[in-house]
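Minutes, project huddle
Topic: does the predicted pose make sense with flavin-adenine dinucleotide bound?
PN asked that the exact inputs be recorded in the minutes so nobody has to dig through chat later. Recorded below.
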Amino acid sequence: MIDREILLEKIKTSPYKPMKAKIIEACMLTEKEKFFRIELEDKINLSHEPGQFVMVSLFGFGEAPISVCSSPTDKGYFDLTVRNVGTLTNKLHQFKKGDIVGIRGPFGKGFPVDNMFGFDLVIVAGGLGIVPLRSLIRYITYNRNDFGNVEILLGCKTPKELLFREETHEWMKRSEIKFNCTVDKADPDWKGNVGLITSLIPGININPTRTYAVVVGPPIMYKFVIKELVKKSIPAHQIVVSLERRMKCGLGKCGHCQMEGAYVCQSGPVFTYDQLQNFKGECHEKAA
Ligand SMILES: Cc1cc2nc3c(=O)[nH]c(=O)nc-3n(C[C@H](O)[C@H](O)[C@H](O)COP(=O)(O)OP(=O)(O)OC[C@H]3O[C@@H](n4cnc5c(N)ncnc54)[C@H](O)[C@@H]3O)c2cc1C
Ligand code: FES
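Predicted holo structure (C-alpha cells), as shared on screen:
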C-alpha cells in the first residue's frame, strides 16, 4: 500500500494538479472573444515562451488548452484570450475579476525565438491566430534591438472581429514596425485594406535568407499563405506555424493530440514548414 505521505507528496507535485490562479482583469474584446489577465497564487511568474499554451480548468467543466498571449517580459501576470465555442469556454466567459481558475503549464514548444535573433520577421496572423502571436509581438517590442525588420500582416473577416484594437493602433504608429491589416469584408467606417491576407504578401520586400515568417491562423489560411511565402523564397525551416489539436493532458501521455507519432502538445504546437512536410498532409488541414 502506498504510504499516505508519499501519496500526498505525489499529489502536491503532480503535473496533473492545477495551480490556483485569480482573474485580475476581464473584458470582452469582440462579441465572441474575452480577454483575461491572470495572476498565479503567490504571484509567481508563469515563465512561458511565446507560442506556449496553458491548460485552463474550471471545476466541474473540465480543461481546455489556451495560448498565452502576454510576453514572458510581462511579469507577475499573464494574459489569455478565449473564444466562446462550447461548454468550458462558455462557462469561462461568465467569469469576472476576482474569480479563481485552475492553470497547468506552460506546455509545448513555443516559437523558435533564439533562432530568430538577428533575422527579419514577417508575422502573419489570421483571426484568432493573433492571440499566440501577440505574445511574440510584445516580446519583440520589448527586445526590439535583437531583431531585424519586423512586418506584421493581420487579417480578419470583418472590422468588428479585430482583436487587440488599441494595441494594433500602437503597432501602426511605431516607426520600426511595419503593420498592415486587411478585412475580408469592410464596413462603412473601415479605412484599411479589403481582401484576403494572402493579397498582402506579394507586396512585402524581404531578403528571404535572412527572414523568418511566423504564421498562425485558421487551417484554410496556411495552405495559401505558405504558398505565397515559398514564392518569396523563404526557406521551409524559416517558415514557422502553430497547429491546433484536441488535447487532454498536455504532457505527452494521453495520445489525444498525436499526429503521425508526434505529440503536438510536446513537440508542438509550433512547427517549421519543413517539419510539417514530413507529416504527409494531415496537419495541413489541422493547422490553426
Ligand atoms: C495549443 C492550443 C491553443 C489554443 N489556444 C486558444 C486560445 O488562445 N483561445 C481560444 O479561444 N481557443 C484556443 N484553443 C482552442 C480551445 O482549446 C478550444 O476552443 C476549447 O478547448 C473548446 O472547449 P469547449 O469546452 O468550450 O468546447 P467543446 O464544448 O468541447 O466543443 C465546442 C466546439 O469546439 C470544437 N473544439 C473543442 N476543442 C477543440 C480544440 N482543441 N481545437 C479545435 N476545436 C475544438 C469542438 O469540435 C466543437 O465544435 C487552443 C487549442 C489548442 C490545441
Ligand atoms: S494532449 Fe495528451 S498526449 Fe498530447
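Observations noted during the meeting:
- Residues 113-276 form a domain with the Rossmann fold fold (CATH 3.40.50.80).
- The longest strand covers residues 19-28.
No decisions taken; revisit at the next huddle.
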